[in-house]
Amino acid sequence: MQSICRLLTLIGLSLGSFACASKTYQVTVVNQTATPITVGVVKDHGPSEEGLTPVERLAIDSSLESMGPWGFVIPPGKTGDTQPITGKFSGGAQAYLRVYRGTGTNAELISVGSSNPHRLDVLLFPGARNEIIVKDGSKKLEFVRVSPKLQ
C-alpha cells in the first residue's frame, strides 16, 4: 500500500511540473543612462505570447521585414511603465526585463547576445510592480532593483 501511495505521489509531482500557471507582471523602468534604451518583457522559454516574446523568437516566427519594432524606447532621464502583462508559464519558465543600450532595428537587436555589455536581462517577479533603475556601469549596463525588495 505504501508503494502505491509513493508512486501516486511521484506521478502527481511529475504532472504538476508540466502544469501552466498564469502570471502577471508590471514593470517600471527608470533610464539613468546617457543614451536611450530599448526595453521589453520576455519569457525565457515556452510558447510565444504577445508581449512576452523576445525579438529573436519573433524573427523565427516571421520575417524581419514584416515585423514591427520590438519593445519600446525610453530616453535618458525618463521613466517607462508597462501595462499588466499576463502569460502562461510552465516547466520553470520565468519572465525577464530585456534591456538594450540605444535604439536599433530588429536585426541589430538580435545581434546583441546575452553576454554583450550592451544588453541586460533582469529577472521579474509576478504579482508585484517591478521597479528597475538602469544605469551606466564602468563597462556594461547595470541595474538597481527598487521593488520588490528582496530579502
Can you characterise this structure?
With about 150 residues, the protein is of the alpha+beta class. It has one domain (about 20-145): Immunoglobulin-like (Sandwich). The chain has 3 helices and 9 strands; from the N terminus they run H-E-E-H-E-E-E-E-H-E-E-E. The chain has helices at about 1-15, 55-60, 105-110; strands at about 20-30, 35-45, 70-75, 80, 85-90, 95-100, 120-125, 130-135, 140-145. Strands 1, 4, 5, 8 and 9 form a 5-stranded mixed sheet that branches. A 4-stranded antiparallel sheet has the order 3-2-6-7, with no helix packed on it. Strand 8 (about 130-135) and strand 9 (about 140-145) form a beta hairpin. The longest helix is centred in the first third of the chain and has 15 residues, at about 1-15. The protein is globular, with a radius of gyration of 18 Å. About 25% of the residues are buried. Residues about 1-15 have low confidence and may be disordered.
Considering the chains and any ligands shown, give keywords for the structure:
Immunoglobulin-like, disordered N terminus, 38% strand, five-stranded mixed β-sheet, alpha+beta, 151 residues, four-stranded antiparallel β-sheet, globular
